[in-house]
Write a structure and sequence with these properties.
The protein is of the alpha/beta class. Helix content is about 35%, strand content about 25%. Bound molecules: 2-aminohexanedioic acid. The site of 2-aminohexanedioic acid has 9 residues, from loops.
Length: about 525
């Protein structure tokens, strides 16, 4: 949890929390424990932290175990104890449990979505999508239980057989973010399990309830004790202990580029496998022949969905000068109709941002954008913190900067909030150059009716994901997800490609000639 959210939590704890004007008794706040070796247990120190609703911080979503290094070590031990039995359970049997998990998630979808809106802020339609993504991932990836394909290949010597099989990597530590608090944990958890690994998961401190719901569902599905373990708490000490633990073979991390670098260094120290999914500065290119209304809808959805807090968010829009004026006018008009408020209210388009730190960071970028005279603030720009709907939450107006120069900070750095930068361009070639001219390479999109332009951009954009006539967000679970450059470290989640994270290849040679055959040395002739 951020320092600011912690401070707020303390204040909230001192005052009796209220919701809807009614006083809540402290007893009404539910307490949640760690899940270690199939038991729900308090942290070693017996401490808790509070999970607050970002739309109304007077609402305490729950008290969660504040894990220490000792808790993490216990969880790792539990995962270690379960590892051998789980590895040896045939993959189709492991998958049966996961299919059962998918059914349970489906059954509780509505409740899980509403819990998620309460702890994370995004609107109910989007949290429903988040839970659905976990369901899709579960059913799709569980199918791997009857595939997990390896291959056979000819050997260079006679009477010799060669094949390659996947083996689980072992014990996996999963460190997950708050913006997709059930979908992203599922991207890691489900493939780890179907491949035969046991796990310890450490969810973001801002949104532990959604991971609790996922792990509770694993318990209900009958996944054996010790196979899935959860510790809640902060990066330091919980995430740090997990990352540095000698028995953890792999760390899969999604979060900021700065933290990812720390995780990668810690893994490098002990030769652990490390898969990273980090920042983005994604772009929509709007060509002169684009369907402008469609491009506007895609921009609004991509830039302000999840309040811009997606690593795939459309935080830059590069627009051809021939349609630039019209695009900007329409975009600003549309953005001004967006309603900012509590995500639980069906009238809301844009929910709060996650916490007070996020408010400071995003407002800081808005200031930076305004200070530089190369760009103009065309919509939004303010924090909303007055009136009953906004006074107790972390709300920021959807914000559009126009006439932005590509090298400006607001066009280069990840803001992770409801802010987008519109940049004019003279041609597709220039648009692609601008689009590629950032340190990240996650997602990009082009709006055009011209197939040649679409293919040119598809070919020339150096990103992990590309869309034609669709926004930069909305990846589906059966295609690989990830990015180039500072976005990642070469791995892909989702699709079948995720199996390359959670398994290691074993090349097997069977020599049935009954004699010593030396590869690369002995000659093999026709006679
Ligand atoms: C993220 O941006 O942090 O592609 C994950 C999407 C979602 C996942 C986003 N399916 O927008």
């Amino acid at each position: 949890m951020s320092q600011a959210k912690k401070a707020l939590a303390k204040t909230a704890a001192k005052q009796t929390p209220t919701r809807g004007g009614k006083r809540l008794r402290a007893a009404a706040v539910k307490t949640y424990f760690n899940y270690i070796g199939g038991e729900w247990v308090a942290s070693a120190g017996g401490d808790f932290f509070e999970n607050l609703n970002p739309a109304d911080t007077r609402d305490v979503v729950g008290r969660f175990a504040l894990s220490t290094a000792e808790d993490v070590t216990r969880a790792v031990d539990a995962a270690k104890n379960a590892a051998e039995k789980w590895r040896l359970l045939p993959a189709p049997r492991r998958a049966e449990l996961l299919f059962r998990l998918g059914e349970i998630l489906l059954r509780y979808k509505e409740r899980f979505a509403s819990d998620m809106t309460r702890e994370m802020g995004k609107v109910l339609k989007e949290t429903g999508g988040d839970v659905q993504e976990a369901i899709d991932c579960t059913f799709y990836t569980a199918g791997e239980g009857r595939r997990l394909h390896g291959f056979t290949t000819p050997a260079e010597m006679p009477d010799k057989f060669a094949m390659c099989v996947r083996q689980p990597v072992g014990l996996c530590g999963l460190i997950t973010p708050w913006n997709f608090p059930m979908a992203i944990p599922s991207w890691k958890l489900i493939p780890a399990l179907v491949c035969g690994n046991t796990v310890v998961i450490k969810p973001a401190e801002d949104t532990p309830l959604s991971t609790y719901n996922l792990v509770k569902a694993c318990e209900e599905a009958g996944i054996p004790a010790g196979v899935v373990n959860m510790v809640t708490g902060y990066g330091d000490p919980a995430g740090k202990t997990l990352t540095g633990h000698k028995d953890v073979r792999l760390i899969s991390f999604t979060g900021s580029t700065a933290t990812g670098r720390i995780v990668a260094s810690a893994c490098a120290e002990r030769n652990a496998i490390c898969s990273l999914e980090m920042g983005g500065k994604n772009v929509i290119m709007v060509m002169e022949d684009a369907d402008l209304d469609l491009a506007i809808e895609g921009t609004v959805w991509g830039a302000f969905g999840t309040s811009g807090q997606r690593c795939t968010a459309s935080s830059r829009v590069v627009v051809h000068k021939k349609v630039y004026k019209k695009f900007v006018a329409k975009l600003v008009e549309r953005v001004q109709t967006l309603r900012v408020g509590n995500g639980a209210d069906p009238q809301t388009d844009v929910g709060p941002v996650i916490n007070a730190d996020a408010v400071s960071k995003i407002m800081g970028y808005i200031e930076v954008g305004q200070r530089e005279d190369r760009a103009r603030l065309a919509a939004g720009g303010n924090r909303l913190d007055t009136g009953a709907a906004h006074a107790n939450g972390f709300f920021i107006e959807p914000t559009v900067f126009v006439d932005v120069a590509p090298e400006m900070r607001i066009a280069q750095e990840e803001i992770f909030g409801p802010v987008t930068a519109v940049i004019p361009t003279n041609s597709l070639e220039e648009a692609v150059e601008i689009a590629n001219g950032v340190r990240y390479g996650l997602s990009a999109a082009i709006y055009t009716q011209d197939v040649n332009r679409a293919f040119r951009a598809m070919n020339d954009m150096y990103t992990g994901i590309f869309y034609v006539n669709s926004s930069t967000i909305g990846a589906e679970v059966h295609l690989p997800f990830g990015g180039t450059k500072a976005t990642g470290n070469g791995h892909r989640e989702a699709g079948t490609q995720v199996l390359d994270i959670f398994t290691e290849w074993k090349s097997i040679y069977v020599d049935y000639s009954g004699k010593l055959q030396r590869a690369q040395i002995d000659e093999v002739n026709f006679e």
